[in-house]
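A student in our group prepared the protein record below, which I am reviewing. Here is the record exactly as it was handed to me.
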Amino acid sequence: MKQPKELSESDLSRVIEMAWEDRTPFEAIEDLYGLSEPEVIELMRASINRKTFNNWRQRVSGRKTKHKELRDPSVDRGYCKTQYKHTRKR
């Protein structure tokens, strides 16, 4: 597993955020950060408290939007194009 210490603080925060997002599949996390689903699960287990982790696991287990192979084939992206925060140029 890619150890959390190898991730910057902002990358670790972003991986956790992506794991919480219902519409971001584990494959998108793997593409961006090189962490497989089991590695994301271990990272989440180590990063959040047990009750929160258990609630998260229950919510994402078998969720169609979290697993590319369960998604409708017409969905060809890993995230909603409006989900990322953009900074305004001044």
